[in-house]
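In keeping with the milestone schedule agreed at the kick-off meeting, the structural modelling team has produced records for the first pair of proteins. Each record is given below as a sequence line and a structure-token line. The laboratory manager (R.T.) confirmed that both were archived under the project's standard naming scheme.
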Amino acid sequence: MQIIAQHGEVFIILACLFGFFMAWGVGANDVANAMGTSVGSKAITIKQAIIIAVIFEFLGAWLAGGEVTATIRGGILDPALLAAHPELLVYGMLSALLAAGLWLMVASSRGWPVSTTHSVVGAIVGFGAVGLGVDAVDWGSVGTIASSWLVSPLLAGTIAFVLFKSVHHLIFENSDPFVAAKRYVPGYVFLVGFIVSMVTLIKGLSHVGLDLSFGQSFVLSLVLGLAITGLGVVMLRRIKYEKAASDHFGYANVERVFGVLMVFTACAMAFAHGSNDVANAVGPLAAVIGVVQSEGMIDSASLVPWWVLILGGGGIVFGLVTYGHKVIATVGTGITELTPSRGFAATLAAATTVVLASGTGLPISTTHTLVGAVLGVGLARGMAALNLRVIGTIVMSWLITLPAGAGLAILFFFMFKGMFG
């Protein structure tokens, strides 16, 4: 208690600095989840992707980033063991932010799409197990999170495979692909509107007074899906057939139809991502602020001040502008060659997986989900369409994320403990 009263201001300043650094890492690495497929499929340029992401990621983080954030993320640590020594939680959360931010900086500079959630989880498990004792960690929660590494890419990959095959069968194998695209794409527009509305309502808006049940979200998403379909039909009517000597089958015109869809999915996924993943940066930051302001009381949840969400949103935007292009390139072009129709299948599959996981309560990584979906689209075209070297590097970076976060957090935990005593 005395240490917190003595160094409270220093702890808050450090937490803000490390929180911004962590948010920078989220922007540099995780924004590729929302933008990678759109850029890789050439539906939008990297410049347009950055403008869309800057606006919608920031709005998502600020408007729907959460009024209440659990201080001890996902029930990983036992709060009873920290009650007598609240300063250990402060050291631990500062260590988790710095360790996860540092790992994300390394991964982003290499163009590796890693999970920001798992970086933070690994860091908290690391300082909890070594700093507080192995019994302080809820290993059941950690096991559930680890199982999602396998489940989410497999599920997203399967859905993407089926979606892309359906697009191929209904549209590309049709005698007149352009007419078929105009006929069937409104159905896909509804799917996009419905699924992305579900992602946003379930993952994005539960903290701004719109705490809707799964059923309410479902009904509202149906209405939004129908409204977006109406808008999509109006936009599709404006696309006229353009004859080109090099385009014998009219596939380029079909891809222009899907390009309209990709712009919408990019905006909506960026908003949902900003609202969801800003918690990785502001969760531990809220824990430190809560402990310092209550002079050592550890509550299971802390109110997040509005300026903390703006700090998180600003960090995400800064990370995207400075380093985001590297991971966007890996997801968008490194794994397999994407077109708007393939990118659409991957994005919608990833969004569907997020909705299913939210409905069942399975903790998943958006990064793992989207990479799995891109793999599924690539597999639909055969193994030769996949860049196995890039895939191997991505899987390796996933495997070392948790131990890297844990190792760095342990190092920083003892450093802070030694500094403040």
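The second protein of the pair:
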Amino acid sequence: MLIIAQHGEIFIILACLFGFFMAWGVGANDVANAMGTSVGSKAITIKQAIVIAVIFEFLGAWLAGGEVTATIRGGMLDPVLLEANPQLLVYGMLSALLAAAIWLMIASARGWPVSTTHSIVGAIVGFGAVGLGVEAVAWGKVGQIASSWVVSPLLAGTIGFVLFKSVHHLIFESNDPFAAAKRYVPGYIFLVGFIVSMVTLTKGLTHVGLDLSFGQSFLLSILIGVVIMGLGVVMQRRIKYEKNASDHFGYANVERVFGVLMIFTACAMAFAHGSNDVANAVGPLAAVISVVRSDGVIDSAALVPWWVLVLGGGGIVFGLVTYGHKVIATVGTGITELTPSRGFAATLAAATTVVLASGTGLPISTTHTLVGAILGVGLARGMAALNLRVIGTIVMSWLITLPAGAGLAILFFFMFKGMFG
């Protein structure tokens, strides 16, 4: 208690700095995943991707980021074992933030799309097991999060596979693919608006004072979906059929229609990502603020101050703008060749999975989800469509992430313990 009273301000300043550094890493590594399909399929340019991400990542983090934050902060460690020494939680959360941020910086520099969720979970488990004892870690919770690392790519891959097959059947196999695209794409746009709105409204907005019933959320989501669909239809009307001697079936024109749709899925993915992954940066930061302000009382369900979500959102945006292009290249072009129609199926599948997970409070990995969705779309075209060497490198970087986060966190934990007593 005395240590927290003496150094409280220093702890909060350090937590804000490390939290911003961690959010920068989330932006540099993970947001690139959210935008990779749109840039890789040439539906939008890298500059447009950054503008979309800046707006929607920030909105997702600020509006819908509160639900997941509670899982990362409160569920990983046993609060009873920390109550005697609350300063250990402060050291641990500071070391977890710094460890995960450094690992993300290394991975982003190499263009590896690793999991920010893996990084922070590995770091928290590492300091918990060594600094507090193996029994302090809620292994059941860790197991639940670990299972989501398998479930999320499988679910996203399955949704991506089914979506791409539906696009192929309804549009590419019809007698007039361009007319079919204009007919069905507004329906897909409605789906994007409806799914993201529905899960955000039902689960994510209680902490900003908007508490709607399920029925109200459902009706409002339909309305938002219809408005977004109307926007899409207006944008679609500008697309005129262009004759091309080398394009007998008019598929290039169909892809231009899907290019419009990719703008909407990019916005949805950025919002979904901001809502889910801001927790990785602000969860430990909120824990430190909560312990310092309550003079050492550990409350697993403390509210996240609004400015903390703003700090997280700002860091994510800064990370994408400064360093995001390397991972965008790996995800957008490395795994399989993407066109707007394939990119749409992958992005909508990933956004649906991420937003559902965010709604249920399960911190899944956006990276695993999106890579799973891209693999699903690639498999719909056969194994030959996949670049197995790149996939192997990605999987290897995933396996290294947990031990790297844990090892660095243990090192920093003892460093902070030595510095502050």
